Amino acid sequence: MSVKSLLHEALGLPPIERAFLIEELLSSFEFSNRKEIDELWAKEAEKRISEIESGKVKSIPGEKVFEEIRNRFNL
Q: Is 53 exposed, middle or buried (0-12, 13-18, 19+ CB in 10 A)?
């Protein structure tokens, strides 16, 4: 199976299953500094939440994001 067809199938999964798949793929990498990476991601998430709540950035609905991805990669 090609990566493109695998991605196409994965994008068809319900959001919770896509999140599970992402987590499993990421955990397949061996990071020696996993705790540091998790802390950095948590800090980034808090920053993004703050930016959205303050109106500094505008969120885009997930459906629109995935539509743009499908269009860009002809999926």
A: exposed
Nearest to 63 by CA among 6, 4, 15: 15
CA 67 – CA 64 distance, rounded (Å): 5
The pLDDT tens digits for 4-42 are: 999 999 999 999 999 999 989 988 887 778 788 889 999
Give me the helices (H) in the chain, please.
3-11, 15-27, 34-54, 62-72
Q: Contact 10/69 with Cβ under 8 angstroms?
A: no
